[in-house]
Automatic annotation (TrEMBL):
It comes from Pigmentiphaga litoralis. Gene3D superfamilies: NAD(P)-binding Rossmann-like Domain (3.40.50.720), ornithine cyclodeaminase, domain 1 (3.30.1780.10). Keywords: Lyase. Its EC number is 4.3.1.12. One of its GO terms (cellular component) is cytoplasm. This is Ornithine cyclodeaminase. It comes from the Bacteria. The keyword Disulfide bond does not apply. It holds the Pfam family OCD_Mu_crystall. SUPFAM superfamilies: NAD(P)-binding Rossmann-fold domains. GO terms for molecular function: ornithine cyclodeaminase activity. It is an enzyme of class 4 (lyase). InterPro entries: NAD(P)-bd_dom_sf (IPR036291), ODC_Mu_crystall (IPR003462), ODC_N (IPR023401).
């Protein structure tokens, strides 16, 4: 049997790659374009909830991207109380494979990938669905993905005003301080949801609620706004979908009835969001198969659950850059 080597990229390797905002967005947009053209396989995520813990769960995401000639599986943990023991709430590993032979290619610390690709999905949704002159961002939540939401959105829109809120004061203050340092502009920290959301051009809801609670009121949403709710537990009112001109998702297969979790799970189960009134998947818009925003009056909702293919595309981009830079470790598989 021929020898098989695997490239291992750990957390410090991923940090040393220093992917630019443009590189992150380009990798994720390439995955969306492939999806829109029917050149991907996206398996619905699976959940593993350990019997010994009610604090969190694991997500298993699987996919294949034909243009990149790579398949992958990511396992990401989501344990909300990890901050109490000095750990991030989300940690992940991505395995990349040759789709012809099944040969393992790489193992990548995907904790940063999870955050980056989630932020890129939010930003790319805005690129195609938000008003071009959007100047006010209201962001609920301060978890790992939140930083990349704001950073990548701001790279596209250069907001005049960024408002942030999260449940714990120390969390929202630290989040704002990091953003101010990295973005070089003031961040408004709000003590409540309404003052964060009301009148914003782009609203992102990335809360971490223990159970579904309608914290974000539909009446706060500005006509013509772009709204992105993606918390694990629903934080929006059932009426939110009533005011939308268009509703877009990342992958209907992961949003359909009968699946657990998700910001719009009650809306799907009650047919307020269905395959019949869904405007498009974002990949169809990126690939030019469906329309994005068509005028400034449209109020548009984008719900993303997380695509395995965006993890794989970003991991593949990291692998290619690491090889060019001589980063990573070579592990003997066979």
């Amino acid at each position: 049997m021929q020898s098989i080597d695997i490239t291992y990229l750990n957390g410090p390797d991923v940090k040393a790659l220093a992917l630019t905002d443009a590189e992150i967005l380009a990798a994720v947009e390439s995955a969306l374009d492939a999806q829109g053209r029917g050149e991907t396989v996206i398996e619905p995520r699976m959940h593993l909830v350990p019997e010994s813990s009610d604090k969190g769960h694991f997500n298993v995401l699987r996919g294949y991207i034909k243009p990149l000639h790579v398949a992958g599986v990511k396992v990401v943990s989501d344990f909300v109380d990890n901050y109490k023991v000095g750990l991030p709430s989300e940690m992940a590993l991505l395995n990349l494979f040759d789709p012809d032979t099944g040969k393992p290619l790489a193992v990548v610390d995907a904790t940063a990938i999870t955050d980056m690709r989630t932020g890129a999905m939010t930003a790319l949704g805005a690129k195609h669905l938000a008003r071009k002159n959007s100047k006010i961002l209201g962001h609920i939540g301060a978890r790992g993905t939140s930083y990349w939401n704001v950073r990548l959105l701001d790279s596209l829109y250069d907001f005049d005003e960024i408002r942030v809120h999260s449940r714990r004061p120390e969390s929202r203050e630290a989040f704002a301080a990091r953003l101010e340092q990295d973005l070089g502009k003031p961040i408004i920290v709000t003590t409540d949801w309404e003052s964060c959301v009301r009148g914003a051009d782009i609203v992102v809801e990335a809360s971490r609620l223990p159970e579904p609670t309608p914290m974000l009121k539909t009446e706060w949403i500005k006509p013509g706004a772009f709204v992105v709710p993606y918390g694990t537990m629903s934080a929006v009112e059932l009426s939110l979908t009533d005011i939308m001109s268009k509703m877009v998702v990342d992958d209907w297969g992961q949003c359909r009835k009968g699946l657990p979790f998700g910001a719009l799970r009650p809306h799907v189960e009650s047919d307020r969001l269905s395959e019949q009134n869904l405007h498009a998947e974002l990949g169809q818009i990126v690939a030019g198969k469906k329309s994005g925003r068509e005028n400034d009056d449209e109020t548009i909702l984008f719900w993303h659950r997380g695509l395995s293919t965006t993890d794989i595309a970003l991991g593949h981009a990291m692998l290619m850059k690491a090889r060019a830079m001589g980063l990573g470790q070579t592990l003997k598989f066979a």
